[in-house]
Design goal:
Rossmann fold, single chain, two-stranded antiparallel sheet, globular, alpha/beta, 8-stranded mixed sheet
């Protein structure tokens, strides 16, 4: 589990990030980009410091990447729930087309990273963006932005470090059910969900979409983090079965990667 916790926009913990080097934020114009091969097959343009820090580019979530490549098709409407710093979202956009991607990320400080990585990969604007959480309820604050980047973040500053937001900690940040976003944006054909323990809450908020549309779902399961919400993987799988889904275990590494269909 990450040492840091993001609570109402502030970092709590004894270190800023795994690949921190000096100050937390760097001016956008100082970030150098390089081409990095992913899973031994695809190339994504990412910050040099990130490429040099990690040595697992041939193996990182490789099974999930190949599963997505096998099932995602051009023009599918694809929701990335938990976009983090955006390099994987840019990779998925190459499969379905950037205008068919919906980016969802609650950590405001990460949106400059997402935007710059998107631009460095020469991607068109995504279908929509949402600076907030997906969960089992809607809050009155926050709306999705269509074909634009969220307002509010300081897009002149790039974060050099790992940052997370936890649904269980954030009481002021916007939250939307995926069912509500589907009405506003369009029903997804596929979902990628990586939400640090809030997996069951996210799919519960998508119940109507799952039962009626049956989108393909790649989901990262975090058993220990799920305990924060009083949930277990069994509760998640029972819910997905009630929605008509079968599951395939793709891999187990730093988390459990499943494909639901």
């Amino acid at each position: 589990m990450p040492t840091n916790r993001m609570i109402d926009g502030q970092i709590i913990g004894d270190r800023i990030g795994k690949y921190e080097a000096g100050q937390k934020f760097r001016p956008i114009e100082t970030i150098e980009f390089v081409d990095q091969q992913i899973s031994g097959r695809w190339v994504v343009r990412i910050p040099r410091f990130l490429a040099e820090y990690h040595g697992w580019w041939d193996t990182w979530e490789k099974e999930r990447h190949f599963s997505m490549f096998d099932h995602l098709k051009a023009e599918m409407l694809f929701y990335e729930v938990g976009a983090s710093d955006g390099w994987q979202a840019a990779f998925y956009a190459s499969m379905v087309g950037a205008p068919n991607v919906v980016l969802i990320e609650p950590t405001a400080e990460l949106w400059p990273n997402i935007k710059l990585i998107w631009q460095q990969n020469n991607l068109a604007l995504p279908r929509a963006t949402f600076l907030g959480f997906c969960g089992d309820h809607d809050t009155p604050n926050g709306t999705a932005d269509h074909s634009s980047w969220p307002e509010g973040p300081d897009y002149s500053q790039f974060v050099k470090g790992r940052m997370f937001s936890y649904l269980g900690d954030a009481t002021q940040k916007p939250c939307r059910k995926l069912d509500s976003l589907a009405i506003a944006i369009g029903e997804p054909d596929a979902l990628n969900i990586d939400v640090e323990g809030a997996e069951l809450l996210v799919v519960q908020g998508a119940e109507e979409t799952l039962k009626e549309k049956h989108p393909l779902i790649w989901l990262s399961v975090h058993p220990e983090m799920m305990e924060t919400f009083g949930h277990t993987p069994r509760m998640l799988f029972d819910f997905m079965e009630r929605c008509g889904y079968k599951s395939e275990l793709l891999a187990v590494d730093h988390e459990q990667h499943f494909f639901f269909y």
